[in-house]
Amino acid sequence: MTVSTTEPAPDAPDPADAANTEDAPDGPDAASPPDPTASALAVRSLTVSFGHGRRRRTVVHDVSLTLAPGECLALVGESGSGKSVTARSLIGLAGPDAAVRAEGLWVNGRDATGFRERDWRTVRGRVVGLVSQDALGALDPLRRIGAEVAEPLLVHSLATRAEVPGRVNALLAGAGVPEPEVRARQYPHQLSGGLRQRALIASATAGGPRVIVADEPTTALDVTVQARVLELLRELKESGTALLLISHDLAVVAQLADRIAVMTDGRVVESGPAADVLGAPVHPYTRTLIASVPGRRPPEPAPRAPAGEGDVRPLLSGTGLVKRYASPGGGRRTAVSHVDFTVAPGETLGVVGESGSGKSTLAALAMGLLAPDEGEVLLDGGPWSALDERRRRPLRRDIQLVHQDPLGSFDPRFTVRRILDEALSVAGPARAVRRRERAAELLDQVGLDPELLERRPARLSGGQRQRVAIARALATGPRLLVCDEPVSALDVTVQAQVLELLARLRETYGLAMLFISHDLAVVQQVSDRVLVMRDGVVVEQGPVAEVLGAPAHPYTRTLLASVPRLPDHAS
Amino acid sequence: MTSPPTEAAIARPSFVPLRERLATFRPGLLLSVAVLVVAALACVAPGLLAPASPTDADPVAALLPPGGEHWFGTDQLGRDVYARVVHGARHSLLLGVGATALGVLVGLLIGLPSALLGRFADQVAMRSMDVMLALPELLLALLVIAVVGPSSVNAALAIAVSSVPGYARLVRGQAQVVRRAEYIRSAIGLGLRRRTVVLRHVVPNTLGPLVVPATLGVGTAIIAGSALSFLGLGPKAPTPEWGAMLAQGRDALQSAWWIAVFPGAAITLSVVAVTVVGRQLHIGLEGRPGR
């Protein structure tokens, strides 16, 4: 058995002794931590490790947190920072392989250090509720929503069977689910992502818990839906429920949190009132994190605006594009409806839309991977979508794709070298030795060590994979990059680096980009012009400053209003 | 036990070390690999394991029970059963492996176009496979033998034919998944020719997941081959083949059990070993990162 020997984090409350006496007195000095027995959730010197012996890996080091009743504490960090493990350890859900140690743990004022599974069961749902990111995974696919929400009521004997339907309806309605009677009889897959997340919140709040642990509750949701879920969480907080919010997204956190703890590498590096952490960050990591939030620079007029719209022949243009898919229930669904767009040489056109808006279909049409049902895509004013594949193939090197999921876009058997070599064989040097050198140069250009050439992408980090994907796209010497959600799966600091890389490459090669994203802030940062899509239709397009600065269409306005932003005073 | 407050274990360490040790030490797997190594040796150099001839008859030494001179005893004609089992490995195992390889190859040639060429090709190929699937595999194999006549090679052919529909369906399903994968779109987007995309990306990624079912299929094919030989539809008489040996020992089971039991054990052992290794491959490949 090991005792954690790590130093307490700078701002963490000091580990006081007499931690588990009932009325631990607050010391005379002001920095002493609040009485844990009066807190909603508190932990002192939490250390969590996985594995044994030499393979032991400690993922949470000496973390101390206190969540007061009715307060929202946000735990912020990037993937692998240990924030989820910390949160789950606090409710005894770290998993069977985790070794969890702490000097003290209090759940709703009760000392929980000696809790066994049986004790935890009396607490979960009743005292602490959990809302996780993956609502589809968290809800049993074979049970109706109503049964799921009713479960805590029945398990903790909070309602008789006769009362249950009424209570379930009230809970669903309280979580902002319209038509609760109908929804209660449906299965999780019949609900949209936002409704599922709200049903999950209804289920988590059914037992009237004092504390809710929300692990990335809005990460998979569209911004407009996210705004509504955040509103719901705010109402819960205002009604006196303490909220432990885990998120990678500082802007989301800024909407709700009273206090923020920033985690990296399993340690809390900075914590304090939200305004202080966001406004005057002390730790360099916090500063990097804040600086990485996209769209913090005000939209500036396009610096390298193409030399007038009229006299430049567009590189790629689409007119009256329509694409329909057969829908599962028979009939056809229109994914893209009468869309016009143009991308001038060297210009970046941003495409913004929520899920199902048809933006990925537009990318496939631009790439010539899908044929439009109506309308035409032109390359350099000549046919592109109308060409047959044999004639289009030699032109494909001009337009390259950077996909959201780089790993999926590489043949799983290939090493980085083979991936790049294949792309170079299309338009690069003919001799294999020269291609080898060129592959190393490409990696260097995207900021990767050429030593990675012999690795397989599965063994690279998310940011490295996306850089390899960009290197592959550059290998054919393209004039246009179609970027389909290129940074959506990346941590915010990595996202900032990749965006910077794209901006640099655009300068260097005069690349044009069709940049597709659900994230307005990202699009705002990289684009010259922007196109807003909804349900397959372009609702608004124009220069970034115009569209996002003074939106004309109500949907654009809703979208803009839904985007969580850091407060202006943030450094 | 009361822990001091500085070292309170909230979740007691579970029994991972023991589990880990059990997970890494798998006697069954080791044994199976050993069986396959011996079997492979028997295929390549049977003389090394059994110097005696498998076909030399010695009427004086007929029906001797297992002992020092003849480990597995002798059969009705006085042939050494041990030598026959060892030399029979080549026929029985190669029959299984060969039939499976042929089945997978033909399955690929039918399943791949079926997945890639469009609805009409798919319908034609899959409906003919359905017709073949409607007959039990052994019956289908018997049908083939009835047409081409009994022999060692024809037995392999018959078993291959009967396994084709299964592999064709597996290939088709896998190829349909691979065809829609993002890396195929990327390859097309690079401007690669269709043939290159299919040969370089679709075929290897379709065959990869087939390794496991094919390995397990070898076991089935060995049994099917032995069954055909047992019925006298395999290799001709003096050839030592396990299924044929079973048939030969069947009538003497009460007086000379060893004639049938040892080849029977050889069949069982090799099929179990192939299956265990195949399962392990399955676990190993499923767990690999990135599909």
UniProtKB/TrEMBL annotation, chain A:
List the residue ranges of the region (Disordered): 1-37, 292-315
Q: Which residues form a coiled coil?
A: none
Q: Which SMART domains does the entry mention? A: AAA
ABC transporter domain residues are 43-290, 316-560
Q: What is this protein called?
A: ABC transporter ATP-binding protein
State any single GO MF term.
ATP binding
User: What InterPro entries does the database record attribute to this sequence?
Assistant: AAA+_ATPase, ABC_transp_ATP-bind, ABC_transporter-like_ATP-bd, ABC_transporter-like_CS, Oligopep_ABC_C, P-loop_NTPase
List all Low complexity biased stretches: 1-30
Q: Does the keyword Transport apply?
A: yes
The record's family statement is:
Belongs to the ABC transporter superfamily.
Q: Tell me the Pfam families matching this sequence.
A: ABC_tran (PF00005), oligo_HPY (PF08352)
| Key words of the record | ATP-binding, Nucleotide-binding, Transport
The cross-references to PROSITE patterns, in alphabetical order and at most eight, read: ABC_TRANSPORTER_1, ABC_TRANSPORTER_2
CDD domains named among the record's database cross-references: ABC_NikE_OppD_transporters
TrEMBL record, chain B:
Extract the CDD domains matched here: TM_PBP2 (cd06261)
Carries keyword Cell membrane? yes
Q: Where are the transmembrane segments?
A: 29-49, 93-117, 138-161, 210-234, 255-277
Which residues, by range, are in coiled-coil regions? none
**Keywords of this protein's UniProt record, alphabetized?**
Cell membrane, Membrane, Transmembrane, Transmembrane helix, Transport
**What PROSITE patterns does the entry give?**
ABC_TM1
Its membrane topology is listed as:
Multi-pass membrane protein
The record ties this protein, via Pfam families, to:
BPD_transp_1
Query: What residues does the ABC transmembrane type-1 domain cover?
Result: 89-278
Localization per record: Cell membrane
User: What family does the entry list?
Assistant: Belongs to the binding-protein-dependent transport system permease family.
Q: What is this protein called?
A: Peptide ABC transporter permease
Taxonomy of origin reads:
Bacteria, Bacillati, Actinomycetota, Actinomycetes, Kitasatosporales
